[in-house]
Amino acid sequence: MRKIRKIIEKIVEGILTLSGMATTLIILLIIVFLFKEGFGFFKSPVVEKGYEVCLNSSNTVDKLSSYQIKQIFDEDITNWKEVGGADAPITPYRFEYLFEQYDEADFGEEYKLLPAKIAEIIKADPNIIAFMPTKYVPQDLSIRTLPRENFGFVDFFFGKEWMPTATPTAQFGILPLILGTLLVSITAILIALPLGLGVAIYLSELASKRVRKILKPVIELLAGIPSVVYGFFGLVVLVPLVQDWFNLPVGETAFTGSLLLAIMALPTIITVAEDSMRNTPRAMREASLALGATQWQTIYKVIIPYAKSGISAAVVLGIGRAIGETMAVLMVTGNAAVMPTTLFEPIRSIPATIAAELGEAPSGGAHYEALFLLGCILFFLTLIISISAEVISKRHPQN
Amino acid sequence: MIKTEDINFYYGDFQAIKNISMEIEPNTVTAFIGPSGCGKSTFLRLFNRMNDLIDGTRLTGNFIIDGQNIYDKSVQVDELRKNIGMVFQKPNPFPKSIFENVAYGLRVNGNNNKKFLEERVEEALKSTALWDEVKDKLKKSAFELSGGQQQRLCIARALAVSPSILLMDEPTSALDPISTSKIEELIFKLKQDYTIVIVTHNMQQAARISDKTGFFMLGELVEYADTKKLFTNPAKTETQNYITGRFG
C-alpha cells in the first residue's frame, strides 16, 4: 500500500513539474517568436518586393531612405540637392502616369512594349525618379535602379509617420504611436490617481462596515467587465460628452481615451491602495489617535505614509492596465496615427494599431513584421512596469 | 481625579464591563489585574475612549475625569486624548525617525516651532532615560531601536504632549526582564507628575509598582483596594484564589 502511494505521489510530482516547465517553455517560446518575427522587419527592404525605384544613369544619388522617397513623391522634397545630388528639380514619376500619358493600345499585347516606353521616359529626363514594377523595368545602360535599402532603427523609432500602406514606400515611424500610448496612459493615471486614492481612503477609513461590504465587491466587479463593453460605453456616452464639453469637431480624442482608461484603471487602483491602507497595523492608528490626532491627521500623517509602497504599486499597476488596453482605446480615440500635439485630437495607441492592422497586413511582409516589433515594444513597456511594481510592493516601509 | 459610576460596556450583545464604580486619586499608580478576557484592557481603553473605534459598542454610566463626563456629547475626543497618554502592549513606534516619533503629538497639536520641538523631545526622552542612548541618532528610524528602547520611546511620545494621565496596557509583556525593570523604575519615577493606570498580567509587577490594585473577573471589578492589602489580605475568595495561582 505504502509503496503504491509513494509511486502515485512521484507521478503527481512529475506531472506538476512537467506542467510548470511546459508553461514556462510556452511563455519563452511566445517571446522568442515575437522577437523573431519582429526583428525580421529590419531585414525587409524599404521598397516593396516586386517594385523598383529607377533613376536616370546620369543621376549620382544612390541612397534614399524610405522617408526621403516618400517626401519626394509627396513633393515635399523637390530638388536633388536636398538628398545629396546635383542642383536640379526632381520629377517624380509613378507607374499610373503611363496610363494617362499613353493609350493602353500603345503598350502592345500583354504589355510587351511597356519596358521600352519606360526606358524612353527615363532617358528623356535626367532628373526623373520613377516607381515601377520590377518585371517592366527595362534592361538599359542609361537606366539605373536604386540599390535596395532595409528599414533602419532610426526610421522606425524616431520616424514621425505611420503609413503602412503608402506607395512607393510604406512609412513605419512609431514615434506617434508611442507618444499616443504614453499620452493617453499618463493622462489616465493623472485622472484616476486622485479619484482612486480618494475612494480608497473613503473605503478603508471612513465608510461604515455596511457601505464597504456593498461597495468593495461592486468595485471589484468593475475590474471584470470586458473592455469592449467599456468601449461601447465610451463611444456612446463619453465621446458625445467630450465633444459637447470642449466644443470639439470630433469627440474621439486622446482625452476621451484617457477618461475611459481612468475609469477602467480605477478598480485596480482602489483595490490595491485600499488593501495596503487597511494593512496599516491597528497599533499605528491607535498610537496616533491616542496622541490626540484627529482622524484626518492620522490618515495623512500615518496611514498614507505607511501605505506608500502599496499606493505606488497601485499606480504602476494602473499604468500597466492603461498601456496594454486595446479595445476600449481603439473604440474611442479616433485612431489617427499623428504626432499628438494636444489632448483634444485623435491619437492612436500601440495595441490599437496592432489589433486594427494585423488582419490586413500580409504575413511575412514589412507591415506584418513592423506590427510584431510594436508588440515587442509593448512587451518591454509592460515588462518594465511589472518589474517596477514588483520592486515597489516588496519594499516594506522602513524594514 | 478619575471617578466612574456604574459603568456598563457592551460589544454588540456581549457585556464586557459590568457595573464598575471606582475612584482613582491623582499621582498614584493603579494596577488592573485579572485573568485573560476579564475586561481589564477594555476598561482601560474606556479612559481615553479608544473603544469608540470599534463598531457596535455601547456604554452606560458616568465616566468622570476632573469633574467632566468624558462620554458627554460636548467632549472633543481628540482634545480629551491629548490629556490622556496611552502606551500599548506591543511597542508601536511610527515608521518615522526617533525625533519625529516623539514630536508627533506636538505636531498634530499644531506646534511646528523647531526650537520648541527640540526642547520638548529632549525633555521627554530624558524623562524616559532614553536620551543618552539615542541622542546621536535622532534622525534614525525608530525601528532600529531594541524592543525595550522602542517601548520607552512610545512612553516618551506619550509624555511629550504633557498629559496628566498615563494609561499603560501591559507595557512590558513583550519585553525582556532587563527592559521590564527599566520601565518599572520609570513608572515609579513618573508617578510624581502623572496619574498612572496600568494593566498587567504580571502580579509581581502590580505588587511592586502600584499603590492600588483592582482585580477584575468576567467584566466585574471584584476587589479594589490598596495593593498591600489586596495581595496580603484579600477580602474576596476569588481574589485569594487568583493571587495564589489557583486559576488564571
Largest sheet of chain B: 6 strands, mixed
Which value, in Å, is the CA radius of gyration of chain A? 30 Å
Count of extended strands of chain B: 10
Structural domains of chain A: how many? 3
Largest interface: A-B, 23 and 30 residues
Briefly note the structural class of the backbone of chain A. mainly alpha
CATH structural architecture of chain B? 3-Layer(aba) Sandwich
Order of SSEs of chain B: EEEHEEHEHHHHEHEHEEHH
The residue ranges of chain B in which pLDDT falls below 50 over 5 or more consecutive positions are none
Poorly predicted runs of chain A are none
Mean pLDDT of chain B: 91
Oligomeric state of this protein? heterodimer
Which CATH C-level class of the largest domain in chain A is it? Mainly Alpha
- CATH architecture of the largest domain in chain A, by name, is Orthogonal Bundle
Helical amount of chain A:
55-70%
- Kindly identify the CATH topology of the largest domain in chain A: MetI-like fold
First-residue to last-residue Cα separation of chain B: 31 Å
Explain the overall architecture.
The complex is a heterodimer of chains A (399) and B (248). Chain A is mainly α. Chain A has 3 domains: 2-43; 51-149, Periplasmic binding protein-like II (D-Maltodextrin-Binding Protein, domain 2); 175-394, MetI-like fold. Chain A has helices at 2-39, 66-73, 97-101, 114-124, 153-158, 175-206, 209-222, 227-245, 254-278, 282-290, 295-306, 308-324, 327-332, 350-357, 366-394; strands at residues 51-56, 91-94, 128-133, 143-145, 162-163, 171-172. A 4-stranded mixed β-sheet of chain A has the order 2-3-1-4. In chain A, strands 5-6 form a two-stranded antiparallel sheet. Chain B is α/β, with parallel strands linked by helices and 248 residues long. Chain B has 10 helices and 10 strands. The longest helix of chain B is centred in the middle third of the chain and has 14 residues, at 114-127. The mean pLDDT of chain B is 91. The chains are: A mainly alpha (399), B alpha/beta (248).
